[in-house]
User: Fold these one by one.
Assistant:
Number 1:
Amino acid sequence: MDEYASLLSHWNSRINLVAPGTIGNLRSRHIEDCLQICQHVRPADGIWADLGSGGGLPGLVLAIAFQRSETEFRFVESDQRKAVFLRTAIRQLGLANASVITRRIEDVAPLNAAYVSARALAPLPLLMPYLSRHMADNGQAWLMKGERWQSEVRDAQADWRFTCTAYPSLTHSGAAILKISEVSHV
Ligand SMILES: C[S@@+](CC[C@H](N)C(=O)[O-])C[C@H]1O[C@@H](n2cnc3c(N)ncnc32)[C@H](O)[C@@H]1O
């Protein structure tokens, strides 16, 4: 994880992977934040799709944490330069369990993923079509949401049926990690 943090700060001077003002506390602000997901899930075999991975949050953090599991991580990131960073990090960290798809989420063939994650990608109503496209029928999504998560859930319920459990974030007051499953269109 230290090696990942140092790669991220090195590349951040050239491409904006995280807000430059947060680079001084990468560990607490970003890495510990993403590691919270590990308290709630022990993934089995199958694909874990991280959508809009950017600098690898939470995808790379989880691929490092779960590198001894049978889970195959796919990072979907349309920005070419960020995808180059992700591929470089995968190679330098020696992660055999991760690969990058450099395309728009909506253009990627359905991944049938057992697990999906996203952080700072879009409000929940816009994420729901992505979950519907890429999550397996019995899959689960782990979405890192900010303080407006409750109204996002209400807005998404206008068009979608889903099961949702909210775990309060331990790193950002008012934020939550949402576990979403059983998604179908109303
Ligand atoms: C605000 S950043 C968040 C990055 C990372 N998840 C994080 O928490 O730091 C959103 C990322 O999603 C990517 N992105 C946005 N829309 C996308 C789409 N439709 N398909 C693929 N990637 C997308 C952007 O290029 C960007 O890297």
Number 2:
Amino acid sequence: MAVYTHLGAGDFAALIAEYDVGELVSAKGIAEGVSNSNWLIETTGSAGALDSNNKPQTRFILTMYERRIELGDLPFFLALLDHLSAAGSPVPRTIHDRSGGASRLVDGKAVAMIEFLPGVSIDNPSEAQANAVGRALAGIHLASADFIASRTNDLRPDDWKTLFDQCGDHLGDIDRDLPAAVDRYMPQFRAEWPEHLPRGTIHADLFPDNVLMLGNRVSGLIDFYFACTDIIAYDLAVTHAAWCFDKGGRVFRPEIGKALMAGYETVRPLSDAERSAMPLLAQGAAMRFAATRSFDWINTPGDALVERKDPVDFIRRLEFYSQNGRSIFPSPAG
Ligand SMILES: Nc1ncnc2c1ncn2[C@@H]1O[C@H](COP(=O)(O)OP(=O)(O)O)[C@@H](O)[C@H]1O
Ligand SMILES: N[C@@H](CCOP(=O)(O)O)C(=O)O
């Protein structure tokens, strides 16, 4: 579920009246998602909000920011959406209100309206789809090269360590082998993290549920609420870790990995230094999600209507990269 806050018909009508998008037709809560409340809004449309075909836009996503988002970061996220969509990336633009604001407050909570994009999330990608995802990711890396705003990544190796430390003795309650895996792998990230690699604006959470597809085409990249300024190749490593395994992280799909990498490098070839660092970056990407999932596992109330995600799934991926990283990501010399 992802509707944490109840808004009534009057609330929606009053809010929509602040935008030049026509009259409210419907507002439906969206079940997917974890962090925020989302509604699909339909309106009668207006010349004030035109789609890419110059037709009045009638469908929007209304997001109310509920958790894990610093409100001070919201201008960065929303400006990034506008920058990327203006550059032609398949990213929803924000709909500004009548006074030009990209976000507003409703009962003390920030809300924003963004363009609805068509498409569905893919659970089990084909090679063609993985290739398209790689191209789309490289596309936003190139398109954000002249995006001047920046945001520090608050989920870097030291932060993963802090999250694990905050789990304390409960880490072993999730899985008895988890504390040993953390102790074994964590030091290398803090000692060897490749800070020298090219940096830029990254999505940092490009999981299948954050990509919308129509057939083999990426029609939408969404959920930029972990976006930040960090190592560009790390974003590719996150995407690789998220897309190239079966659901439990037990089976690696080599053909999907190859297609993703090939798609990415068609648009933005990796440097030798980036390629050499991929095995470590991929292990780090897996550790990052094991860290947030462990923290959330322990800190999500039992009665919360949110699906808890398994950290061990990502420890398996980490172990796989530790053993096979060099063959999956051959070093420049071959
Ligand atoms: N621009 C959009 N166009 C179409 N659907 C969207 C859009 N943004 C979000 N959604 C839908 O809302 C769901 C939750 O959005 P998301 O940003 O991933 O929320 P959360 O941050 O809570 O995970 C997505 O899975 C998708 O179904
Ligand atoms: N992708 C993360 C969870 C973040 O949730 P999102 O719905 O905001 O993408 C994970 O799988 O651990």
